[in-house]
Amino acid sequence: MPVPEELSKSWSEATAMMDKGDNDIALEKLRESWDLCENDSQKAKTLKLAGDAGTTLGTEDPEMQRSHWRKALKNYRNSLKMDPKNKDARKAMNNLSSMMDANAISRGAGFQLMDEGNPTPFGLFAIVAVLMMSLVAVKVISDMLTEEEGNPVVSMDVSYVDSVTGERTMGTIEIELFSDNAPKHVENFLLHSSQGNYDSTIFHRVIGGFMNQGGDIDGMNGAGGNAAKWFGYCNGESRSSSSACEQGQWTVPDEADNGLTHSPGMLAMAKTSNPNTGGSQFYIVPTGSSPSHLDGVHTVFGEVLSGMSHVDAINNVVTGNNDDDESTSGDQPIDDVRLISATVM
Known about the structure:
This protein is α+β, with helices and mostly antiparallel strands. It is 37% helix and 17% strand. It has helices spanning 5-19, 23-33, 40-60, 65-82, 87-102, 121-135, 137-146, 183-194, 308-315; strands at residues 114-115, 118-119, 153-161, 168-177, 201-202, 205-207, 211-214, 233-234, 237-238, 250-251, 266-269, 282-284, 300-306, 338-344.
């Protein structure tokens, strides 16, 4: 559906206002344009622009930063509810979330339990809930002591062109993550997955008999991808603060000496030849491959629970190295191997 001319004009005017630093006026313009939206896609773009203006307002006005950023985050979230595939809105929301984390700003206003010394309705509910929980506390604590908590699992929905049938195939790969062996890498992977950063990316590098590599959340060409949060490292170098390090250079410190090795089905962190340079990229070892020369160098932090047949099929797709087309080269698959979504189970 074409965008109404008046709405398109409002978007352009609001963008121009933001470029001039008039973000308050831009927000008012976007509010006025809401009634001009005819579908969810147009509403999603309007909300995304409002999120951009609110983010900048929070940066320029430290005293009101908390309020501006929470409103902006809400706009981004509502935008993604209407248009979940909007990568620009998702990236902007993730960037804002990281800035809020860095400035110790919670992502919600919270619930008020007391008002001038008296419990609010929610406060009364909370008191009753606490009393009810106390009745079963002994059993809960007992269960916590006797039952071992399982490792987190991430489910990947993938799509690839099978080298045998020549048809595009859908599949699911479930991977268990080893929190005790590589806590930082697992946290990083879970954050990227839960924030949707891996959704609609590709496996950009596939080497037969070796590994399948993906997770470049930027250009999807193997040159990008940063850590999902600040782990104290900027492009591999230890830093006391993230203030002098752009988010695109945030990296994860190595946890390679954890006893896990590169056997078939293992998930590991891709990085440069320098230590502590992992970001978002990862690779999975297929059946028949055991690259032991990477043990102790690259951090292994997970293992395939199910879907190994898809891992092996992806490892056999046609790439630039085994295709006769001179316009293609390297280890990138001729037909995209797509990571449709990564979901924390």
